């Protein structure tokens, strides 16, 4: 499955962004996250152009939780997207990248006082308020910063849960995120937000799931959110200026995955919002979206070096690589599936069925079960595709494994964007206390 600029070169090697993956592994070591910069930029443009062609008043907000580095902030900024951050750390990254404050949306279900203060001081464009406690904190802060124009969206739970083909409308209130729409919490939140001086309510937000392959959940979300806009208009005379529909647009992890073309998701969403606004007779708001995985997921490939191979005749061949759940937690966390090839035997015929094991001390640390590959040997470079989103950002130091380096490739050039952690880095936060001095003995 060759996406973006991936192709097989004359040496029968995988090439990404014009760079030979085997050479990348030699130069930067493995495991290595390789990011296809042209594909990232193309994805940004596809989302922005698709939505702008239907509705001028929009923000495409990259969900930084998928993958965030200073360089990524820079690319997102250049491509004209906004940025969704969910913590002080993500906000700090954006600040270090000098990302324009007004284009930052600050999310999270438990923002601390200090995080909110930092966001207000930096002047973020929107705070997406998740709960009543947060409204209280912002109310306090608005008194301390009267000159700051604190613009907020309220996060609502529209009762839609969508993940790949699994789509349910539950009227589900049982979520840690947002204000429930069915139990009146959302209306109370509007009342409360409207009563806080120094806070400007701009509209509403929802996020209905991840890796969605259908139009229907987005159409339903449009219907529910616009109906809510109508209700608050009737009840409080409040004009909803913005609705942010979150992320969740599906991508292709496997050959068999069938995400919709971007234009189709966007068309379904925007036309539904427009139609509902007409039906309910409410002004058309700004329509925003927050793709994360869809911008960065397919652009990432992880390179590993193959090590131990354990064959259990008649049962299974385990092929171990030099990374695992420490750089890709998704198979262990939610049974995520991937495809791969051997970068130094890229177009060779498939000869054997193997399972790819990580090197962490967990039986559950398996990256891929039952994949057909050419004959595989220790020292081969395995390339696992579609590892751009929620890999580096979810990486850990489990088993004291250093986090891999991140390299951006483009037009035959590779740029190191994050260096590999060293063993020293692993210990850098440890405080070595000298042994306590003896100050008292019983015989004194
Ligand atoms: N927006 C919000 C509020 C989210 O919680 C998430 C993911 O959890 C996203 C956007 C990005 O979702 P995705 O990467 O599936 O597009």
Describe how the helices and strands are arranged.
Layout: E1 7-8, E2 14-16, E3 19-20, H1 21-28, E4 32-36, H2 37-52, E5 61-63, H3 70-78, E6 82-85, H4 88-96, E7 104-106, H5 113-122, E8 126-129, H6 132-144, E9 150-157, E10 160-164, E11 166-169, E12 179-180, H7 185-195, E13 199-205, E14 209-212, H8 216-236, E15 242-244, H9 262-280, E16 286-288, H10 293-296, E17 300-312, E18 316-321, H11 330-334, E19 340-342, E20 352-357, E21 366-373, E22 381-385, E23 405-410, E24 413-418, H12 423-427
Parallel strand pairs: 4-23, 5-6, 6-7, 7-8, 8-9, 9-12, 9-13, 10-14, 13-15, 15-16, 18-20
Antiparallel strand pairs: 1-2, 2-3, 4-17, 10-11, 17-18, 17-22, 19-22, 20-21, 23-24
Helix pairs in contact: 2-9, 5-6, 8-9
The structure holds pyridoxal-5'-phosphate.
